[in-house]
Amino acid sequence: MRSDLAKSYGQDRLPRYTSYPTAPHFSSSVRETDYRTWLKSLRVQQRASIYLHVPFCRSLCWHCGCHTSVTKRNDPIAIYAAGLRTEAYLVAETIGQRLSISHIHFGGGTPTVMTPETFADLVGTLRYSFLVRPNAELAVEIDPRTLTEPMAEALGYCGVNRASLGIQSFDPAVQRAINRLQSFEQTVTSVERLRRAGVGRINFDLIYGLPLQTVGSCLDTVAKCLQLRPDRFSVFGYAHIPSFKKHQRKIDEASLPNSIERYLQSEKIAEALIDAGYVRVGLDHFALPDDALAFASQEGTLRRNFQGYTDDSADALVGLGASAIGRTPQGFVQNAAATKDYLARITDDRFATVKGYSLTEEDRFRAEIIERLMCDMAVDLADISRRHGRDPTLAIVDRPRIDGLIADGVVTMDGDRLYVSSDAQFLVRSVAAAFDAHLARSKATHSRAV
Questions:
Q1: DSSP state of 27
Q2: Per-residue DSSP letters for 84-144?
Q3: Rounded distance, CA 277 to CA 232, Å?
Q4: Which residues fall within 8 angstroms of residue 166, CB to CB, at 6 or more apart?
Q5: Which pLDDT does position 444 carry in this prediction?
Q6: Dihedral sign computed on CA atoms, order 327, 328, 329, 331
Q7: Same-domain status, 17 and 124
Q8: Residue range(s) defining the domain that contains residue 376
Q9: Distance from first CA to last CA of the chain, Å, rounded?
Q10: What is the pLDDT at residue 1?
Q11: Can you tell me the distance from the alpha carbon of 193 to that of 200, in angstroms, rounded to the nearest whole number?
Q12: What pLDDT shows up at residue 448?
């Protein structure tokens, strides 16, 4: 345990590096016309993925950092889903061919607030507009408090084969502090419904660093989760940024764990999951040994995207929905965040692109370094530099940071090979930041390093 490092580095505010450059560096210089041009350059042999953002929930969790809103009615959701279908048609029409799709991910918000009929229509549109591969992964994020039996059956009928269930914590005190009351029994019922419907791969999402959370309550939550034996866990640190998400102001900052407490919660959760037979994948994911994510980690093919760690090696990501981010070989695009703005553009047969980022060769070079660090906890700077035609001695942009990390035992270097120490992997974001050429110019507020 390295509580000394948690104390030294834990207050640093750093990106999660689910992309490079990170989203705060997107600008309005990338427009709809750029996105059209980039889509037209895609070829049928290129594998792609689809991310659909559904920005609706039945109630608001105060810790949430997602783009979402609360509605009790189904009509706004049905109208929005029609917009998603229209956008899918626009993408397919612009490309001019049925792009091969290996992964589809429904995120939110709560995608399963759609009615079963609306969800089935949407999946049908995707299968009509794109060539969804027979072995494609179809994943859906789920709030166990609102999943109905008919919706679970619809998921199975539509070919959904992975479900990510938000758990966060089973501690009633923590749940009250974040306005998310969710019983273990509700979660059991949801898992049983999903497995009965044929959705065989189950992920659980846990969070540490929540108000009133303790190591004991974290371990109690893990013990309950292990009774259901999900295939994967993601274990994220709560990002308290009330200046960005105003509803987080409802959380009493005095009740939040400090950096050392957050570190202990994270490490104890990891120890419990590893003791239960799960393999640690990257910074904050855990998978059963026969899961595809564990295989990718072992084979050195693990990737990182906006949903976290993945075995998805697609060349492009089609982002559908309000605030959704897409990626092509040329760069990133992001849709309008407000639902009304998104729908106004889509219903006018226009893309909702409002900003993005055009990648340079330097960006691609640094993106690979950071991704390999985040995925492998090590990087061969000479190998990556050679493939990008770069000088490895210029890879590090923040030499004082690296020197400090080396002095503190976080990092070791053997020539141009860099390794993150096994007991300091929780600081891999701090290591990645030394290669981020944009960070010093960023005015964004990021989450804590620990």
A1: B
A2: HHHHHHHHHHHHTS--EEEEEEEEES-GGGS-HHHHHHHHHHHHHHSEEEEEEEEEEEE-T
A3: 11
A4: 141, 142, 143, 144, 205
A5: 64
A6: negative
A7: no
A8: 1-22+360-450
A9: 13
A10: 59
A11: 10
A12: 64
The string of DSSP codes covering 370-407 is HHHHHHHSEEEHHHHHHHHT--GGGS-S-HHHHHHHHH
CATH number, domain of 10, equals 1.10.10.920
Q: Which residue has the tokens 């965040």?
A: 337
Q: Do residues 8 and 55 both lie within one domain?
A: no
* Within a domain: 332: no
169 and 263 within one domain: yes
Does one domain contain both 44 and 92? yes
* 412: helix, strand or coil: strand
Identify whether residues 131 and 221 lie together within a single domain: yes
Low-confidence ranges of the chain (pLDDT < 50): none
My answer on whether omega of the bond before 326 falls inside 30° of 0, hence cis, is: no
In the chain, the amino acid numbered 326 is G
Q: Specify the pLDDT at position 212.
A: 97
Do residues 67 and 323 touch, judged by C-beta distance below 8 A?
Answer: yes
In a domain, residue 188? The reply is yes
* Distance (Å, whole) CA 294 – CA 272: 17
pLDDT score of 446: 67
Residue 336 lies in a domain: no
Bridge partners of residue 286, in order along the sequence: 233, 280
As beta bridge partners, residue 103 has 49, 137
25-53 per-position pLDDT tens digit: 999 999 999 999 999 999 877 889 999 99
Structural domain count, the chain: 2
Render pLDDT for 279-321 as a digit per residue (tens, 0 to 9). Answer: 999 999 999 999 999 999 999 999 999 888 999 999 899 999 9
Is residue 340, in this structure, part of any structural domain at all?
no
